[in-house]
What we know:
Elements: H1 2-19, H2 26-34, E1 37-39, H3 48-57, E2 61-64, H4 80-93, E3 99-102, E4 104-106, E5 109-110, H5 124-127, H6 132-148, E6 153-154, H7 168-172, H8 181-197, E7 201-207, H9 234-241, E8 247-250, H10 268-278, E9 284-286, H11 293-296, H12 301-311, E10 316-318, H13 327-339, H14 345-357
Parallel strand pairs: 1-2, 1-10, 2-3, 3-6, 6-7, 7-8, 8-9
Antiparallel strand pairs: 4-5
Helix pairs in contact: 2-3, 2-13, 6-8, 8-9, 10-12, 12-13
Amino acid sequence: MVQLFKLLFVLSFLFSFLVAKENYKDEEIKKLIGRTIILGFDSFSLNTQLKNDIKKYNLGGVILFSKNYKTNEIKNIQNPTQLKALTSSIQKYSDYKIFISIDQEGGKVQRLNKNNGFTSYPTAKVIAKKSKDEIRTIYSNLAGELKEYGFNLNFAPVVDLNINKANYVINKLERSYSKDSKEVVDIAQIFIEEQKKNDIYSVLKHFPGHGSSKADSHKGFVDISNTWSKKELTPYKELIAKKKADFIMTAHVFNKHLDKDYPGTLSHNINTKLLRKKLNFKGIIVSDDLQMKAIANHYTLKQTLELAINSGVNILVFGNQLGNTKLETIVNTTYELIKEKKVPLSKIIESNRLINNLFLPNPV
């Protein structure tokens, strides 16, 4: 009976939290919005702009890169000593738990590598040829290194099936473990488990599947309508069922059979109806970089924010590799959408609940 009363109290609190929109001050709403953003920045240290974003807007997280995509100059990561100082200062400056994230898959996609003083890890294709014990050792080392240098979120593993041999962004870069879903699930699960042991959250990507694509969403529109198949959902289904999926990243791919109007990241049909309801995903949906040309060339910032949030995306990523978008602009634009009743505040509140739950000993 006591447990029942506790449950009713929590439900009552959450209900009042969700409906009492008029009780929020403008700056509180903007902080709720800020908590749902992961942002890239150009600096080797905690600079004034980043401090302002954390204190004024409760910036949800940062994503670090080794090099600037456009200039190839060093962006955030010079060496181990500098990196540890950077991540430590960001986490200490924030009075809440902030996401410090990275793309550390191995192979072509690893921001920490031998060139900047860290360990280089094999591609997914190479990993798949090793024994399970070897794989676990490799991913244990990778996760341990991430933890040592202050990361708590890794945009990995890739669970795309290696279906299209002409696919540059997945197959040619050797980012997929296999075309066989069981093999993908088995290896991804090891990666996830080793990261969890080191307090690193894993992000499965790229939903609903990028392995059959012919083009690269970094560079423009990607249509998978005639190449995608339902089997590409299998790794997500199985890892969700095994309770191994805390985060899932959306793909900027268009599939007219799933949504006749919008690419995955902006699709309510894909993110809410398919991922949330049909596959029963309870975790956090995070966007791929919203500055990729598959999105940025076709939608304004305001359209992107409205569609992504309403589609069910909880965390929006702006890597500031392909663009230069300030947090203030993102927050104020989202705030306008809320005031115009184009985005429900309840969406932002729910995303904050999911984020905060990650850091609670007993989630509600």
